[in-house]
Structure formats: C-alpha cells, structure tokens
Design goal:
The protein contains ten helices and 15 strands. By secondary structure, it is of the alpha/beta class. The strands form four sheets. Strands 3-2-1-4-5-6-11 form a seven-stranded parallel sheet, with helices on both faces. Strands 8-15-14-13 form a four-stranded mixed sheet. Strands 7-10 form a two-stranded parallel ribbon. Helix 1 links the parallel strand 1 and strand 2. Bound molecules: NADPH dihydro-nicotinamide-adenine-dinucleotide phosphate and guanosine-5'-diphosphate-rhamnose. Catalyzes the conversion of GDP-D-mannose to GDP-4-dehydro-6-deoxy-D-mannose.
Length: 373
C-alpha cells in the first residue's frame, strides 16, 4: 500500500525538500497551500504533477492553519498515514510585529490539527510530526542544548512554538497518539526565505557584487547559531516517524558560528576579503581585496555592510548550540553537509540569480529593487 503524507507549509523551505524526499520514498504527498493573490508555489513547481494525469502522487489543497473546518475536511479526504506540521509564521522578528497572528497559526494551528485528527478518530492511524525549534531554549540555561535542557522562549514566535511543543506531548500522553517534536536548530539552503539572516547575506552580497544593491544592512552580527542544511534535517523529520515509539529529538550539527563569520565566508565565495571596522552601530565591512570575476561591480575600499538598529530584536537569542547525540545514537542520523559547503551552494545560486537580473536590467527589462528586511 502506498503511504500517504500530508504536509502543512509545503510551499516553504522545509516543505519543499520534505515533499521531494517523500516522493523519492514512494509516498503519495499532499500539501496544504494558502490562497494568495499571486502564485506562491515556486519551491514545489518542479515536482508539481498535473492532477489530470493518472497516478499523480503530488497534490495540493487550499487551506490555512487558522481554519479548523478546512483542516478537518482535508484530513478526512486525504486520510494520511503521516502528518508533518511545518506550516508557521516562522520569522522571529516578524512575530514581534504580529504576535497574535503568530500565536493563532503556530500555537492554535497545531492544536487544530491534533484535535481534527482526534475528532476524526484517526489518532491511532495517523502519525504526527511537529516542527519545534531551538528558539524554545532562547535565554539558554545549559550549553550545548539537549532534549532535557529547560526552555526560556524569547519571542512571541518561540512562546507560540512552546505551546505547540507541549500540546503535541500532551496528545501523545493523553490519547496515545504517535506524535513527536523535532527540536530543530537553524537550517538553511538556497530555498531559505530571503529575510532570514543567511539568505539575506548570500543574496545581498551577490546583488552587491553585480551592482544591483549598494550595501547590506544588518542587525546583531555577534549572534551565534548552529546552522545545518535543510536537506539533512528533513530526512530526520521522516526518520522520527518511523520508530516503534514516538519521542522528541534535538536536530543540530553541534558546531556554532557567528553571523559575522557567515558574512566573511559568503564574501570569500565571491572572491572578496572583508575587513570589519568600528564597533557597535558604527561597525562596517569594507572590501580588502578581490580575486576572480564574481564581483565585477566592486572595488577595494567599498563598504558592503553596515549596522542598522532596525534589525535588532526587542529580546535577542544571542547563542544557540545543539547536542544531536540522541539523534545520532538512537536513529543513526548525522548531518552530511557542512555549513561551509551550504554557504558555497547558497552563494552560487544567488550569484546565478543576480547575473540573470543584471542582464535584464542592462537590457531595460527590469529596474533593480533593493529589497531588504
Ligand atoms: P518557511 O517560512 O520557509 O515556510 C513556512 C510555511 O508555512 C510556508 O509554506 C507558509 O506558506 C506556511 N504558512 C504560513 N502561515 C500559514 C498559515 N496560516 N496556514 C498554513 N500555512 C502557513 O519555514 P521553514 O520551511 O524554514 O520552516 C518549517 C517549519 O519549521 C516552521 O514551522 C518553522 O517555524 C520551523 N522551524 C524552522 C527552522 C529553520 O531553521 N528553518 C528551525 C526550527 C523550526 P506561504 O508559502 O504561503 O508563506
Ligand atoms: P532565527 O533566524 O531568528 O534564529 O530563527 P534568523 O536567520 O532570522 O536570525 C538569526 C540571527 O541573526 C541575527 N541577525 C539578523 N537576522 C535577520 N533575519 N536579519 C538581519 O538583518 C539580521 N542581522 C542579524 C538575528 O538577530 C538572529 O540572532 C530561525 C527561523 O527559521 C525560525 O523559524 C526557527 O525556529 C529558528 O531559526 C531555529
């Protein structure tokens, strides 16, 4: 029998990689997409199958985590063996701007899904994965952070995800559901949303190198993160649902770097060496040397990064470092892609996109738009 998976957040970074992975495993994959005024399925367009074709194994349904009746109907129709709840308002800084919406989607949305599974009597059939986060650790109580480290969330996003974490545990304990949390540390890829820090850096520097943007404006570049590749992390999401008993796992690399270091690596991929000068709000990154031909618009002495307090958060998570020992010992999971390899891949893809845009701009088909945030 073909297994069926339902993925919320299928149009996001993880959803797209997970859908690819599950299709490779022979699954029938159903995803929930939000209605938007323009197409929002770019990350999954390459695996889209015309629903009119026979034996299509990839299907999208309109829906939203704020809509219980819609979720119930989709679950009833699809009858999935596995549900992956990846949908979320996932931006920490944005959660300070829209705290109530973030709680509705990230916390209540999880409850709505779990309750729909129970209401439909599917709690013994359907396995449930919850996209939990290292942001739960926030103001860290122990380093490295592991499954037993106490939580101290530092944003409306993290507080909402804390509810989702515990309601998942609660449905497991109360109703015997196979439900588990993956406590995932930051993971990135060329498909990462453009406003998360790694992608903002790789895309911004590639654009600057092609003369499409003047300068990158950043927040706290001293923040320390444990970054992995999304492809490695979605494999683990699936592995967690294949065990005999449901458990929660930390997924991380166990290595930590600063945002400043990620800027330096990205620049190096473009053949630029940067010098950081100044302190606090006056800190800036200046081009020290250039090699190769990836940065034709730059010269030595150009300032390519400045600090803008607009990107500081009301409460910051300064440092995160995960301990993936349990995932390694119990599931045999180890990340295969290093953060440096991932950074190189992201810069390569963003440079290709910047070169394409440069051609369009040069021929008058587009005007350069410096989108930040
Ligand atoms: P993305 O922001 O790339 O994707 C989020 C997805 O959720 C998108 O498909 C988005 O749809 C969808 N979504 C947003 N709001 C709703 C809603 N109201 N109803 C239904 N769907 C909605 O996130 P990632 O892929 O990076 O992350 C996946 C999950 O893992 C998220 O829950 C995130 O919080 C969590 N997480 C991520 C980590 C990371 O480092 N990437 C680390 C730890 C946890 P649309 O495309 O229309 O916007
Ligand atoms: P994070 O990721 O908040 O950890 O949440 P993000 O990439 O947004 O920030 C990481 C760190 O970089 C600092 N920073 C900046 N961040 C952004 N976005 N833009 C900037 O200009 C900037 N300058 C410095 C931030 O302050 C922060 O310390 C991500 C999301 O994917 C969550 O959904 C997920 O749960 C966690 O990772 C684990």
């Amino acid at each position: 029998m073909t297994k069926k998976a339902l993925i919320t957040g299928i149009t996001g970074q993880d959803g797209s990689y997970l859908a690819e992975f599950l299709l490779e495993q022979g699954y029938e994959v159903h995803g929930i997409k939000r209605r938007a005024s323009s197409f929002n399925t770019q990350r999954v367009d390459h695996i889209f199958e015309d629903p009119h074709t026979d034996n299509a194994r990839f299907m999208l349904h309109y829906g939203d985590l704020t809509d219980s009746s819609n979720l119930t109907r989709i679950l009833q129709e699809v009858q999935p063996d596995e549900v992956y709840n990846l949908g979320a308002q996932s931006h920490v800084a944005v959660s300070f701007e829209s705290p109530e919406y973030t709680a509705d989607v990230d916390a209540m949305g999880t409850l709505r899904l779990l309750e729909a599974i129970r209401f439909l009597g599917m709690e013994k059939k359907t396995r449930f994965y919850q996209a939990s986060t290292s942001e739960l650790y926030g103001l860290v109580q122990e380093t490295p952070q592991r499954e037993t480290t106490p939580f101290h969330p530092r944003s409306p996003y993290a507080v909402a995800k804390m509810y989702a974490y515990w309601i998942t545990v609660n449905y497991r304990e109360a109703y015997g559901m196979y439900a588990c949390n993956g406590i995932l540390f930051n993971h990135e890829s060329p498909r990462r949303g453009e406003t998360f820090v790694t992608r903002k850096i790789t895309r911004g520097l590639a654009n600057i190198a092609q003369g499409l943007e003047p300068c990158l404006y950043m927040g706290n570049i001293d923040a320390l993160r444990d970054w992995g590749h999304a492809k490695d992390y979605v494999r683990m999401q699936w592995m967690m649902l294949q065990q005999d008993t449901p458990e929660d796992f930390v997924i991380a690399t166990g290595v930590q770097y600063s945002v400043r270091q990620f800027i330096q690596w990205s620049a190096q991929e473009l053949g630029i060496t940067l010098r950081f000068e100044g302190e606090g709000l006056t800190e800036q990154a200046i081009v020290d040397s250039i090699s190769g031909d990836s940065a034709p618009a730059l010269k030595v002495g150009d300032v390519v990064m400045r600090i803008d307090p607009r990107y500081f958060r009301p409460a910051e998570v300064e440092t995160l470092l995960g301990d993936p020992t349990k995932a390694k010992e119990k599931l045999g999971w180890v990340p295969e892609i290093t953060v440096q390899e991932m950074c190189a891949e992201m810069v390569t893809e963003d440079l290709k996109a910047a070169r394409r845009q440069r051609v369009l701009v040069d021929h008058g088909y587009q005007t350069p738009v410096a989108r930040e945030d």
